[in-house]
């Protein structure tokens, strides 16, 4: 069996459009250039409301959040946008840049999607110039977490991503790694981990020399109002899993109850993490995440997002950061 056929059967690679478009320009040409970066405790750069295309926005948050060390905090950036439209444009630029860099370096771009509101924020990727410029044929797409429901179910993160992004861009179907929705949560998690192992063996997915876990190029996370990321919920024992790459829960406090999820060691081993958080309903959790008063006993899952290497970038809007006093 060829490697790609094995991957397809193990990972239940799903169908999507497979037509390829030629790249008219390298993705790196749409690279973002920092507009400003100020070294205060918590600095935000904002977009101009009049700007038709969002200027790149990079700021540095040096709060010692996420239970992290000073070094980890230094690799944490907080971007605040005046409007969700600008956030979406900047996120597309950021992803096109990372894709270009990964393809130039390794010949592949490995990215994991979450569900929820994140997917709408990815819509600019389906438009010019990203649609033509990104080397979609090099993308390998995973799910940070998935609900154990059929792929055509309204609760499926796969369906959400397929409808909002994946059906509109020419990523080969064999490189879209959906979970096997015919298995139990435990079986689906095991099989997804096996899929990742195979892709590591095939050289598609890198391994972190620091952690020994797979090192995806980009992990796209959303955050719930309770501070959960992926399907890692506050107070659930799964947040402490430190051996498995992929695990499962059957008692999610947010429906549906059965889910599989990347574990923190896998999330935190990625080269880049984007945390996309919008809306006033998330302001409390954002405030806690950037608070200096942290104790390791009551960390929200979002505070446990802390890479050993790599950069964590928060993409936020004003309502989401409205409880941060220094903004
Ligand atoms: O249940 C989930 O929720 C989170 C957050 O979703 P949001 O709609 O509040 O952005 C999401 O990141 C996760 O993938 C999903 O399964």
Automatic annotation (TrEMBL):
Q: Does the keyword Cell membrane apply?
A: no
Region (Disordered) residue spans = 1-56
Q: Provide a GO biological process annotation.
A: pentose-phosphate shunt
EC numbers: 3.1.1.31
Keyword annotations: Hydrolase
Pathway(s) this gene product operates in, as recorded in its UniProt entry:
Carbohydrate degradation; pentose phosphate pathway; D-ribulose 5-phosphate from D-glucose 6-phosphate (oxidative stage): step 2/3
Question: Can you tell me which residues the record assigns to a coiled coil?
Answer: none
Q: Where is the composition biased (Low complexity)?
A: 1-29, 43-56
Instruction: State the reactions this protein catalyses.
Output: 6-phospho-D-glucono-1,5-lactone + H2O = 6-phospho-D-gluconate + H(+)
State one molecular function term (GO). Answer: 6-phosphogluconolactonase activity
Which InterPro entries has this protein been placed in?
6-phosphogluconolactonase_DevB (IPR005900), 6PGL (IPR039104), Glc/Gal-6P_isomerase (IPR006148), NagB/RpiA_transferase-like (IPR037171)
Instruction: Describe the location of the Glucosamine/galactosamine-6-phosphate isomerase domain by residue ranges.
Output: 84-314
- Can you list the GO cellular component terms from the UniProt entry? cytoplasm
Q: So what does this one do? A: Hydrolysis of 6-phosphogluconolactone to 6-phosphogluconate.
Q: Which family does it belong to?
A: Belongs to the glucosamine/galactosamine-6-phosphate isomerase family. 6-phosphogluconolactonase subfamily.
Q: What is this protein called?
A: Probable 6-phosphogluconolactonase
């Amino acid at each position: 069996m060829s490697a790609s056929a094995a991957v397809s059967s193990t990972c239940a690679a799903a169908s999507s459009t497979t037509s390829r478009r030629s790249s008219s320009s390298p993705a790196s040409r749409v690279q973002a250039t920092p507009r400003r970066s100020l070294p205060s405790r918590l600095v935000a750069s904002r977009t101009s409301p009049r700007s038709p295309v969002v200027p790149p926005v990079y700021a540095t948050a040096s709060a010692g959040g996420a239970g992290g060390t000073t070094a980890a905090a230094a690799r944490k950036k907080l971007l605040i946008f005046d409007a969700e439209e600008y956030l979406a444009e900047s996120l597309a630029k950021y992803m096109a840049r990372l894709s270009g860099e990964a393809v130039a370096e390794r010949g592949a771009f490995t990215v994991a999607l979450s569900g929820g509101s994140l997917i709408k924020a990815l819509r600019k990727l389906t438009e010019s110039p990203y649609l033509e410029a990104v080397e979609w044929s090099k993308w390998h797409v995973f799910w940070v977490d998935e609900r154990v429901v059929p792929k055509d179910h309204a609760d499926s993160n796969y369906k959400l991503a397929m409808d909002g992004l994946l059906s509109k861009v020419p990523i080969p179907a064999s490189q879209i790694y959906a979970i096997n929705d015919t298995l139990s949560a435990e079986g689906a998690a095991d099989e997804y981990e096996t899929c990742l192992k195979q892709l590591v063996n095939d050289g598609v997915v890198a391994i972190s020399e620091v952690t020994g876990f797979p090192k995806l190029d980009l992990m796209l996370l959303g955050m719930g109002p309770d501070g959960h990321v992926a399907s890692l919920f506050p107070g659930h024992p799964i947040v402490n899993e430190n051996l498995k790459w992929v695990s499962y829960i059957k008692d999610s406090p947010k429906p549906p109850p059965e889910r599989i999820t990347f574990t923190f060691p896998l999330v935190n081993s990625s080269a880049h993490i984007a945390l996309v958080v919008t809306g006033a309903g998330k302001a409390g959790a954002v405030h806690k995440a950037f608070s200096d008063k942290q104790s390791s006993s009551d960390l929200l899952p979002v505070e446990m997002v802390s890479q050993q290497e790599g950069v964590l970038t928060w993409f936020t809007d004003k309502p989401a950061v409205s409880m941060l006093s220094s903004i």
